[in-house]
C-alpha cells in the first residue's frame, strides 16, 4: 500500500553548458514536466522498481547487493544507484516499492535521469525520515549517476530538479553550491522561451561526453589551476597561448567564455533587459558548436531557422550530440518561428520536432 506520492521535474538550462564539472556557473530552471514516484517502505530488504513508461514488469533487487557494475543496467540503475549512494553515505535506507510515471521527454537533454534520481531520493528521505537537505540530496544523486551508472555528469541537473522555484532561473555556483533565484517571468514581458526537442537521442555515458570532460581536466592541469573556473575571462588570451593541443585549447575557450556568458545574462536579467540575453544565447550555441564540438545538424538547423524567422536568440541546451534547443522569441512571433522550424525539418527529411513553451516551474516536492 502506497505511503505517499512525490514528483521531481526535468530542467532546461538557460545558459552555462558543460561548466558544471569545471566548477563553473550555470543557470537552469525547472520544467513543468515531472517524474512522479508512488512509494512505500518494505521490511524484507527488497527494492522493487516499476515504470509505467518502460515495457516489462517490475524489477526486484536486494539493497544489500547493490554495487556499481552489478545492476541489470537500463533505467533501473538510476534509482538503484540512489539507494546505493544513500546507504554508502551512512543513511539507513531499507527496501522500498517504487512505481514511476514520467512526462519528462527521455533523450531530449532535459534531465529525465536527474528527475528520476531526485524523486527517488526525496521519497526515500521522507519514508525513512532522513531529513536530507536539498543540495546534499543533489550531491548524493550525482554520485549515483557518476559512480553507479557510470555517466560523468556534473551537479547542475540534480540541483535544478531539487532546488528550483517557480518563476525563476537558478544561478548556481557549482563549486560551493551557493545559489540564487533570479526572477524569470517571460509572460509579463510578452516573451516566450521555446524548447525544441529534435528527437535525436543522446547518451551521456557514451565516450564523447567523457572525452570532453577529460580534455577540460587536461587543460586545467596544463594551466596549473584546480579547474577551468579559475581561469579569468580577462586572462583567456594568455591562457590559450600556453596550450599546445588545439583541441584542449578550444575546450578551454568554451568553458571560460561560457562562464562569462552566465555572468552577462545575470546582469542583463537583473537590469530588466531580458530581450538583450538573446544574442548571448546565440553566442553560446556558436561556442558549443565550434569549440566544444557537440552540436549536430538538427540542432544547428533549429538555431539558424529560428533566427531567420525573427527569434531573439537560440542555442542548443543540455549535453549535446542531439537533444533539444531553446529559442527566445516575442510571443507574437512564436507561431511563425514554430512553423518555420517544423517546415525546415520536413524539408531536410528529419523527424518532426516536438516544440513546447518552457515555463519556469517548482522543484521536487511531495504531492500527497
Count of helical regions: 10
Biggest sheet character: 8 strands, mixed
Helix content range? 25-40%
Question: Which segments are poorly predicted (pLDDT under 50) over 5 or more consecutive residues?
Answer: none
Q: How many DSSP-defined strands? A: 12
User: In percent terms, what proportion of residues is strand?
Assistant: 15-25%
Rg estimate, integer Å:
20 Å
Structural class estimated from helices and strands: alpha+beta
Identify the overall geometry.
Answer: globular
Secondary-structure element string:
EEEEHEHHHEEEHHHHHEEHEE
Average pLDDT score = 96
The N- and C-terminal alpha carbons lie at a distance of 14 Å
Explain how this protein is built:
The chain is of the alpha+beta class and 368 residues long. The chain contains ten helices and twelve strands. A hairpin with a 6-residue loop joins strand 9 (313-317) and strand 10. The chain is globular and about 60 Å long.
Mind sketching the topology for me?
Blueprint lengths: L3 E12 L9 E18 L3 E6 L7 E4 L14 H12 L6 E8 L9 H16 L6 H16 L6 H8 L4 E6 L5 E5 L7 E7 L9 H17 L12 H6 L4 H25 L6 H14 L6 H12 L4 E5 L6 E7 L3 H15 L5 E4 L7 E2 L2
Parallel strand pairs: 3-5
Antiparallel strand pairs: 1-2, 1-12, 2-5, 2-6, 3-4, 6-7, 8-10, 8-11, 9-10
Attribute tags:
368 residues, alpha+beta, four-stranded antiparallel β-sheet, 10 helices, globular
Amino acid at each position: 500500500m502506497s505511503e505517499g506520492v512525490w514528483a521531481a521535474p526535468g530542467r532546461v538550462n538557460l545558459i552555462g553548458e558543460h561548466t558544471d564539472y569545471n566548477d563553473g556557473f550555470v543557470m537552469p530552471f525547472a520544467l513543468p514536466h515531472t517524474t512522479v514516484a508512488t512509494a512505500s517502505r518494505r521490511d524484507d530488504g527488497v527494492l522493487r522498481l516499476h515504470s509505467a513508461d518502460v515495457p516489462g514488469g517490475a524489477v526486484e533487487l536486494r539493497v544489500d547487493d547493490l554495487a556499481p557494475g552489478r545492476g541489470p543496467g537500463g533505467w533501473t540503475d538510476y534509482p538503484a544507484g540512489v539507494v546505493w549512494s544513500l546507504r554508502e553515505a551512512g543513511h539507513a535506507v531499507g527496501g522500498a516499492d517504487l512505481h514511476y510515471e514520467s512526462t519528462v521527454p527521455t533523450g531530449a537533454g532535459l534531465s529525465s535521469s536527474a528527475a528520476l534520481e531526485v524523486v527517488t531520493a526525496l521519497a526515500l528521505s521522507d519514508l525513512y525520515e532522513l531529513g536530507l537537505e536539498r543540495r546534499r540530496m543533489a550531491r548524493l544523486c550525482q554520485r549515483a549517476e557518476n559512480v553507479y551508472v557510470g555517466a560523468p555528469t556534473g551537479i547542475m541537473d540534480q540541483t535544478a530538479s531539487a532546488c528550483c522555484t517557480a518563476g525563476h532561473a537558478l544561478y548556481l555556483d557549482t563549486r560551493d553550491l551557493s545559489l540564487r533565484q533570479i526572477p524569470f517571468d517571460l509572460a509579463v514581458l510578452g516573451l516566450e522561451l521555446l524548447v525544441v526537442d529534435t528527437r535525436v537521442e543522446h547518451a551521456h555515458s557514451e565516450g564523447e561526453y567523457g572525452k570532453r570532460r577529460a580534455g577540460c581536466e587536461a587543460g586545467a592541469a596544463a594551466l596549473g589551476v584546480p579547474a577551468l573556473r579559475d581561469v579569468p575571462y580577462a586572462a583567456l588570451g594568455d591562457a590559450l597561448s600556453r596550450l599546445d593541443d588545439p583541441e584542449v585549447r578550444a575546450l578551454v575557450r568554451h568553458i571560460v567564455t561560457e562562464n562569462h556568458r552566465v555572468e552577462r545574462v545575470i546582469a542583463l536579467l537583473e537590469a530588466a533587459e531580458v530581450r538583450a540575453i538573446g544574442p548571448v544565447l546565440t553566442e553560446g550555441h556558436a561556442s558549443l558548436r565550434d569549440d566544444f564540438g557537440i552540436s549536430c545538424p538538427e540542432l544547428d538547423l533549429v538555431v539558424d531557422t529560428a533566427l531567420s524567422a525573427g527569434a531573439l536568440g537560440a542555442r542548443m541546451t543540455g549535453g549535446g550530440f542531439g537533444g533539444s534547443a531553446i529559442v527566445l522569441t516575442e510571443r507574437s512571433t512564436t507561431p511563425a518561428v514554430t512553423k518555420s522550424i517544423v517546415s525546415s525539418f520536413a524539408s531536410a527529411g528529419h523527424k518532426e520536432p516536438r516544440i513546447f513553451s518552457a515555463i519556469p516551474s517548482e522543484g521536487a516536492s511531495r504531492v500527497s
